[in-house]
């Protein structure tokens, strides 16, 4: 049996697939960040907290209202997205005339508050959320044992990412969004309600984070710190892909998931830093990111 | 005239000494993780446990005025050191208790040595506290990596799980736990076929678990803690690793982790603890009181250790009639500890609190009668077998 | 000055009536009370030197100048306190000096971007018939077009919206003479279709070829109005105003 760099090919395929699964979360989260950054020019530091809220709201719907996973997948992004709309209207919208740094500080503060509230109420050990009955079990792929739920995560993420890309790059609504990203004043002068579009865009980006949170609930522990652990990596993904680039966020998200997966095989100790090393290299060679447009 | 002054001075001294006897003021500092990974297993629960010890001791009736303060060290050694210094130098704290996270505990241990104060550690795991880093004022109360490795490692090898693969958190605690367990496994006749070190803290362990799976080991030793352990176990179940016959050995698992996992996922795990709420009538009664204050959560062994150590300390204060570190330490090491929660124990010369440890297995959902009914007792490990022999630790106090 | 204005006012209320319009960029006061009127179906130009306040006047009418004061009555409605999007919805369309073609949008998307604000706009086919160059480049990136094509696209897209009142900011700037002629023909055709146009121009020969009246702007005020038929008679005065 041949080996590749000392790793049997089965193991390698398995790891590639696992990388793709992690990449699904990176892609969904960095996509939301990219959409928000594109139009609002704000680095949404509360994205991780909103992802965590997604998982918690799914848990609450299940525990207090008996609403199952599938409904949660639909309802949670709407509920958490609506909270994003409120935050944008009440707070973020007041900062557009200031330096970007203020938006970053505000959303960072919000993230700490949200995490603190959940920690206070639910503790840090995490809460169990069962995999929906339809997706329990696993497929034996020969080279690995793929849990059905993980397969579903990849499918759901690809569909949502592609759907978002299509909506932004190929529809009239998306054209308005792209135009407003370039020149909001002129778009407003055409009679389009740009402030409302900004609000809804923020809500949508937050909804994407919440969707990722629901997807994550059955496989990662539902705990108040789950977003904080993940979000730093996701920021790196966004920087590598190019701030605000939709396609960049998606491709880089999946791609870096795979790169990280491979690192876990060849040099496990480095898997926590490989993404940041790539980020540093990309910033040196192409500061606008792999898919970024140099302004 | 001169005589009169002397007499007055003598009188005053007597009066002051008398009042000191009647009204000793003790300030206990509970230093632990109040917001991060270990907040549920230590955190506010440890403050509650300390308060219960003060109540049960009857401090008020005995003329000892006890105040409890607490702070969050965020699992960071530098934060822990700063708080410890501030407490000793400015706030008049007499004794620091709990302090989970080995690196933070070792940092506090050094401040403590410098200030000549007492440190009752319940939350941390590192055997160094009673080994090369042992200090005259430090007692390591509840558990350590040796006891965990010894209990779980030996039991698993004896049960036929000979080939081990380690999933290790890539920092000091994980390394030391892996090392301790490796020693026990090989001494008991098992072998270690491999190990992988994962970043701390991590979220996705599936990649490492697949590597463990393809190693063909009988058992995967989880040399990590808290959320990392919970996620490792969850994902092992998801990827069919436990179902395919490989066992998991949780080397540091608290009851709060099992609660988070749910029995469906955690069932069958073998683990070592110093305390379980459902051991006997005394532990049940005490845990009931604890639960009432903590919104229904049952205490962990760390909480039990805080209670037990604070009680032993207060007994020493009463017996010696003061706060002199040397006298208190001498008393605590000479006299056995005795309480309804951790039973009887002794404090060894190196500061190791010696007591029985318990080997538990997590119940199946069918065996459990409800929330928090999680463990069945497999074996009681006598204190002398549970902990590292005195001479192996290399503690300078012993020679 | 305002007496002169009053004399030229027609009996019916003008389509657009600007009074005492003041405007600021941050702290600098740029418009100091602009007054002028535009009647329905007219082509009117704002002439003046660089920095006189012509572009700022258009931006103040459109509402994209953040700080403004005075009165802009359009079609019987006061616009001064409305946001740009409401002004657009009232029926004023704007073609900015820098053309404002979006690079992340295709030509087609650029063309279809401005929403319909009222009935009676040109259809997509009418527009493409008017600008045949665009038809072949519909799927290109907007900013890949030549300068002249970008200018045509910038005009073309606001013809679809149904707005009958156009603000055009220097549509001929930097373009080759043959393109300028083409734009001149287009504007004449628009006029014949009933559009009302306010044109900011440096090139007063071009302005003379299509406009009905010319307002002269200097230091943030309208200082004179010259009907196109009197342009030749006033050419000396005009040269003095424009410094040519």
How are the elements arranged and paired?
The complex is a heterotrimer of chains A (295), B (399) and C (244).
Chain A: H1 9-40, H2 47-65, H3 69-90, H4 100-122, E1 138-140, E2 145-147, H5 148-170, H6 172-182, H7 184-189, H8 194-216, H9 226-241, H10 246-266, H11 274-285
Antiparallel strand pairs in A: 1-2
Chain B: H1 2-22, E1 24-32, H2 43-57, E2 64-72, H3 77-89, E3 95-98, H4 102-115, E4 118-121, E5 138-140, H5 145-158, E6 163-169, H6 172-187, E7 191-198, H7 206-214, E8 219-223, H8 226-238, E9 247-250, H9 255-261, H10 263-266, E10 270-273, H11 281-293, H12 301-320, H13 325-334, E11 337-339, E12 343-347, E13 353-354, E14 357-362, E15 375-381, H14 383-386
Chain C: H1 2-8, E1 16-25, E2 28-38, E3 43-48, H2 54-62, E4 67-74, E5 77-78, H3 84-89, E6 92-95, H4 107-112, H5 124-130, H6 132-135, H7 147-159, E7 165-169, H8 177-192, E8 196-201, H9 204-210, E9 213-218, E10 221-227, H10 235-242
Parallel strand pairs in C: 3-8, 3-9, 6-7, 7-8
Antiparallel strand pairs in C: 1-2, 1-4, 4-5, 9-10
GO molecular function (chain C): ATP binding
Organism (chain C): Devosia nitrariae
Domain ABC transporter (chain C): 16-244
